[in-house]
Amino acid sequence: MSRDAIVVGAGLAGLSAALRLAKAGKSVTLVAKGPGGLGLSQGTVDILGYTPERVTAPLDALGKLSADHPYAQLGADAVAASVAWLRDELGPELLAGDPASNVHLPTAIGAIRPTALAQPSMLAGNITGGRRYAVVGVRQLKDFQADLIAGNLARSSAPDGGTVSARAAWIDLPARAGEADPSGLTYARAMDDPAFAERFADAVAAVAGDCDVVLLPAVLGVKRLGVWREVAQRVGRDVAEVSLQPPSVPGIRLFDALLAKVKAAGARHIQGSLVTGFASEGDRVASLRLAAAGGPRDLACSNVVYAPGGFESGSLGVDSYGVISERVFGLPLTATDARDLIGPDYWASQKLFAVGVTTDDKGRALGPDGPFRSNLYVAGGLVAGAERWTEKSGDGIAVATGVRAADAIIAGGAA
Amino acid sequence: MSQSEAKRLRERLNNELKRASLDHCVKCTICEQNCPVAGVTILFSGPKFVGPQAERFRDGASVDHSVDYCSSCGTCTVVCPQGVKVAEINSLARAVMKAEHGVPVRDRLITQTTLMGKAMTPVAPIANAVLGNGLARKAMQAVVGVHADAPMPTAHTQTLRGWLKKRPARSTPATRGSVVFFHGCAGGYFEVEAAKCAIEVLEHLGYDVIVPEQGCCGLAEQSNGLFEQASASVRSLVAQLRKPGAELPIVSVAGSCGGMLKHEAHEILGLDDPDLLDVGARTRDISEFLMELHDAGDLPTDFAPIPLRVPYHQPCQVRSQGIGMPAADLLRLIPELEVVESEAKCCGIAGTYGLKKEKYEIAQAVGKPLFDMVLEFNQGVAACDTETCRWQIAKSTGVQTIHPIQLVHQAYGLGRVTV
Q: Which candidate in A176, A248, A258, A270 is best for mutational testing of the B interface (most B CBs within 10 A)?
């Protein structure tokens, strides 16, 4: 018995597709080498952050993108509906906001970053002119440098044009006695214990001083949601989590919640095995080959949603001759020669990152004469046309292309 | 251990592909996020720190002792999106360390699983009484270093072989051909019920079940850095499992030991023996084997309902086989049986890790979320695919913990395990 769909990849695109399919009653197997990229992410959902000007109304700004951008094919309505669907699936304790408007959140170096949906624990950090921010660091946690963050915020102007006042303060509170170099996750695990969260809040309250909002490292609980509310109440002011470099606690929260939903909806989950090949029957992918321990396993399927990521995961690669290729299917790409696509200026546009797979309006990978296979859909970072890093568009593309592929399969488009 | 062995292991650590794979590490922290040991103790600084990160700087220097706090659960390799063989690198580094600095007697003793089974079976009541005696266990902790509260196997007066000899000949014809059955040391001596149920289920499905003489897979020796002994053990087992026929499927009821045959002996011990690779390719976990039948439309699902909610824990060394969750999928085919997955990375015991007096507390902390969920969801029974994990769960929760195949056995009307 073949599965209705195999979804490859456990990032935002794969999880969105798997959840949508499983909730529609399809038999789904989610296959992923690792746990996807969410645990490395900010734990927010970007739609569009820069065009390159900073964007405040992302759906309106989609119209300014070129015709070969993934958003141009998807359309603003589909993007808005997909992102709102994800937000509503995860619920207000995990994602809040309006796809039509960006909030502007401080980063772990004190830059101001636009994003569409954020966790409720972050929203008080929406940088607003005239507000006074206290940035409270923990001496033992090197990934959150309060002086750097406060200094950079204080020399920035708020997106509304107002001035930002920010100052740094520090607390001294080991999460585990004797640990030399704890990560944010160590603190988040400690914060799952209400007693530690209280001690943390009391220490913060003692140094926060005169301010409207206390900015804290995003370590306010990983299993237990709502710790930020307890801390805010004890501190007596608004608090906001600022996402750190990986391990990203807010990202892990989203991954854990989405995977639990996918499994609760009945999907099978195979972790740790790389997809290494496929077999075709006529114009269809008939099965995917997995490199399981001991030897290959062939998984029969009616449809494939291929959401393995792009260069960052090795799904796209560049060899020593500059040849770009896609790892599993050898999918046709928008460019195959990397040599002219990597510019000398690190900060300038790097066209290599826009290389990928083009799709039809159902999300199927396109070859020269139509779909590469009639049942092979691609989603997420593999889709061509966006420089996700600079645009801050990767999350919205992932969710919307994941949903598009799932909906095409649910509608019975190709199987 | 000889200096030549230390030199040989270091050569492997420096030169093999597993070592080269560390250059694929992009320092993303995903292994650190998922490591069950680093999450509960600062004594292990995490798979990335002691592995791909530290290995670059060792350059001949001895491996940091913190690597010995790795439990070898393999989670880091499973979750690494870049294909870095983190667990394999760290296991090899530990073997180098032990070869250079020596191995405690305790670590040599607790790896002798077959010997324990053989010695304990004839004197089972006495052995059980000694292992259940608090004073004896305190003495054992002081002298040998096995923690007084760590779970110990229960010896039975009848081995699997004894049962096989005495049972009546099968009454139904074998319609599906033969399979080779791998029961592991525990299945042979301590957990004979699981092995019996698996054999009866396979026979019920129409298989002729061949149970060759079989020794230990060497996994416990490998986890303790005793690579020479582990290699000898697994080679001998491979020869035993190949005897009945070169094409036959090998079906394993020993969850973790199946992983030793499939990939660990090859990737950690570095054995490139074609016989081992052949056995690895033919080995299937019992639940995996049945789910492959199911997905091919060949598994009868005329299961009797089992009205029960059962917490199920997939052992780390079954998860690392990269086959999904076949036992959970299989149990969900049984009407009225509600399966609650533990979502826990490891039960803590990790073979022999949690037995050691200096690691016992860590192992219990690793297993705590699992024990909590078993206590919350059980209705008298929990399920898990590996023997030592079952002992750990049962000892730490007081809940009877069985192999999933025992529920399948009941659902086929072959016996009764639930109350």
A: A270
